[in-house]
Amino acid sequence: MGKRGPKPKSEKLFCWSSRLAYAIGLIATDGCLYNDGRHINFTTKDLQLVKTFKRCLNLKNKIGSKNSGFGKEKKYYVLQFGDVGFYNFLNKIGLTPAKSKTIGGILTPQKYLPDLIRGLFDGDGSFYSYYDPRWKSSFMFYLIFCSSSKNHLFWLQNILTKCLGVKGHGIIAPYGGAYQLKFGKTESRKIIKMMYHKPNLPCLERKRKKIHNALIIDNNEK
């Protein structure tokens, strides 16, 4: 029997890694699986993020752009690629076409949950900070995960409770929009420490810097 050649690219992607888990988090939030059983699309406003996504999956495809539909300016970056094996892998772990309102849990090895969650946060999460004028030295900040699927946020809340003992402020849909899972300062610190568990991880740099600056301010308040 002759020597086996290199494994097809789609098989290599089945080997879990920090980069793969992060990319899957991005696909779960800003990605789309077409109904053809092959093609996957990732769309974002952040050029840095789509470049990071491309590196995480070792893709050679060209990054395109499109406008929002409300003007001629090209505001979104698009990366589309086809891979039957990877597509089927995503199906098996919980990502399917038309997933935005139906996605639940994502089957992920415990070791790579921090990277997956960082991808979910970079895709559809937000972070903001402010001083509360009612109290002296009252610098506040909140970390929020968003999704059109309530079941997905219930799954995420359960994972974070098991891993970190945090529960958040409940899952709500303000103004009838997407559901939100919101964490205050104390719980946010635990999640931040988990997501950025070592230096030089793939991430959306502007969010990481925003969080880093808020932590510096908060530490100086103590």
TrEMBL record:
Q: Which GO terms describe its molecular function?
A: endonuclease activity
| Listed InterPro entries | Homing_endonucl, LAGLIDADG_dom
Tree of life domain: Bacteria
User: Where in the numbering of this chain does the Homing endonuclease LAGLIDADG domain appear?
Assistant: 20-94
Q: Name one Pfam family in it.
A: LAGLIDADG_3
Q: Which SUPFAM superfamilies match?
A: Homing endonucleases (SSF55608)
According to UniProt, the name of this protein is Homing endonuclease LAGLIDADG domain-containing protein
What organism is recorded for this protein? Answer: Candidatus Yanofskybacteria bacterium RIFOXYD1_FULL_42_10
Taxonomic lineage: Bacteria, Candidatus Yanofskyibacteriota
